[in-house]
Amino acid sequence: MKKVSVVIPAYNEADAIGATLRAIRERFFCDELIVVDDGSKDGTGELAKKWADLVIQLPGNRGKGAALQTGWQHAKGEVVLFLDGDLRESAAEAAHLLLPVQEDACDMAVAVLPPPKTKGGMGLAKGLAHHGIRMLTGFETLAPLSGQRAVRKEVLDQLGKLDKGFGVEVGLTVDALRAGYRVMEVPVRFSHRETGNNMAGFCHRGKEFIAISRTLCRKWWEGHAWARNG
Q: Helix (H) and strand (E) counts for the chain?
């Protein structure tokens, strides 16, 4: 079996990071557990040190994409498993996400989570991501924004640099498909914090929509530039 490095980007996850890491350590095997503390102010990094093999504490909040980039570049495993810090006990379900990559059924497995208990927002960000990925690659995705992914390290080495911020998942999917790698979506019973229908939730989804728009525009331009020069 290929060696597995789990990489968890975390920003102010003190209320959940301990349960997430404990579930990984006690109920799911990995060769390496890395937490990238993205400038947290609530002691997330210190709590993570109890469970993680490596805690990288960034000097400030640089965004999810930068945290993931930092994490996978430190990973020694042949497969990198990206998980969010707020999965709590459900993080143990990661074995289902890892299996297709370990069995060489795909190069990147993306988790499709159960439907949220309460609907948040109008689905604009998810719809934009879905249609954008289809337009750029032809791939019909059910979970375009899922951050729970198992990826062969070779894929990340080949692609090089991940996109910044909330556009990182969309960018990774587009880049992997364009490079000819096999992407598979896998139903996994993960559960994590849901964004509510309040001001904070609307602001979060607005930032996400803008970041996804920028990423898709950049991928469209990169595709056309490659076509002109190729």
A: 8, 7
